[in-house]
């Protein structure tokens, strides 16, 4: 089953995605069994991030090729970081490159686990059973900021830097799939989705030793490869069995600020 959130009359509505239509739902399928309250054509749907997580967890350095490229040690245990919900944007919405960004501005194609149950001190089997479904993320990163700043507050968390979608797929063996990154239709990277140092369930076991994970939380699982993005590009992240997340890239509109600069 595929579940999404779409904009209807300016309001976010959950939907069940079919081949031709999106059935609008009375509430979140993560919380129960909502009723069907209408339909919209899939072709004209306005896609929102498929969930707004209570907590946005993210994994870094989880594929050996990426680790080797970065020249850092292979992690000895699973660890998570955090990202900001303001960075989320939906399928087909633009990634906006700030005008101050210089140098590498990159896409990272990621598998995303959507949590469906409260977890604390989870076993591996409990962690596996707690995943409601899977979606796709693009961890857009401004590398100069990443190296200049003490935190990732703008390098990974600026508005629109975290496209996610287009939907949540509940019936797929996500770790047996292939992740493909394309820019303007050209393949820039392809890798086995499940070829991770630590899988999602390993991370949930370790995380819930200390932190309670809640329904609707998301866990982004890292990427094996990255590629440069430029304004005018369209980037596509495909994970077989789930779908394709597509976003155009544009340059931020000029902003004229007066009196807001420190002397």
> Mind telling me the CATH superfamily name of the largest domain?
Fumarylacetoacetase-like, C-terminal domain
Rounded to an integer, what's the Rg over CA atoms? 18 Å
Helical amount among residues, as a percent range? 10-25%
What is the count of helical runs? 4
CATH architecture level-2 label of the largest domain: Alpha-Beta Complex
Question: Beta fraction of the residues?
Answer: 35-45%
Inertia-based shape:
globular
Poorly predicted spans: none
**Which structural class should the secondary elements be placed in?**
mainly beta
What is the element string, with H for helices and E for strands? EEEEEEHEEEEEHEEHEEEHEEEE
Mean pLDDT: 96
CATH fold assignment of the largest domain: Fumarylacetoacetate hydrolase, domain 2
Number of strands: 20
Task: Summarize the structure in words.
The protein is mainly beta. The chain has two domains: 48 residues, FAH (SH3 type barrels, Roll); 203 residues, Fumarylacetoacetase-like, C-terminal domain (Fumarylacetoacetate hydrolase, domain 2, Alpha-Beta Complex). The protein is 11% helix and 37% strand. Strands 1, 2, 3, 4, 5, 6, 7, 8, 11, 12, 14 and 17 form a twelve-stranded mixed sheet that branches. A five-stranded mixed sheet has the order 9-20-19-15-16, with no helix packed on it. The longest helix has 8 residues. The model has no long low-confidence stretch (mean pLDDT 96).
């Amino acid at each position: 089953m595929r579940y999404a959130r779409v904009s209807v009359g300016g309001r976010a509505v959950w939907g069940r995605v079919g081949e031709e239509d999106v059935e609008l739902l009375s509430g979140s399928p993560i919380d129960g069994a909502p009723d069907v309250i209408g339909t919209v054509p899939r072709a004209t749907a306005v896609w929102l991030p498929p969930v707004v997580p209570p907590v946005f967890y993210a994994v870094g350095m989880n594929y050996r090729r990426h680790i080797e490229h970065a020249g850092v040690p292979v992690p000895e245990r699973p660890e998570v970081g955090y990202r900001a919900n303001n960075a989320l944007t939906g399928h087909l919405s633009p990634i906006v490159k700030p005008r101050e960004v210089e140098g590498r501005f990159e896409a990272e194609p990621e598998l995303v686990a959507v949590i469906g149950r409260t977890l604390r001190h989870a076993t591996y089997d409990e962690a596996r059973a707690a995943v409601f479904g899977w979606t796709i993320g693009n961890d857009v990163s401004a590398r100069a900021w990443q190296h200049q700043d003490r935190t990732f507050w703008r390098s990974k968390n600026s508005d629109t830097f975290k496209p996610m979608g287009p939907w949540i797929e509940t019936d797929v063996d996500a770790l047996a799939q292939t992740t493909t990154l394309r820019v303007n239709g050209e393949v820039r990277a392809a890798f086995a989705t499940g070829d991770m140092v630590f899988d999602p369930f390993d991370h949930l076991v370790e995380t819930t030793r200390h932190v309670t994970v809640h329904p609707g939380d998301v866990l982004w699982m890292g990427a094996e490869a990255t590629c440069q993005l430029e304004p005018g590009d369209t980037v596509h992240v495909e994970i077989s069995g789930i779908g394709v997340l597509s976003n155009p890239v544009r340059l931020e509109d000029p902003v004229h600020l007066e009196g807001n600069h420190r002397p």
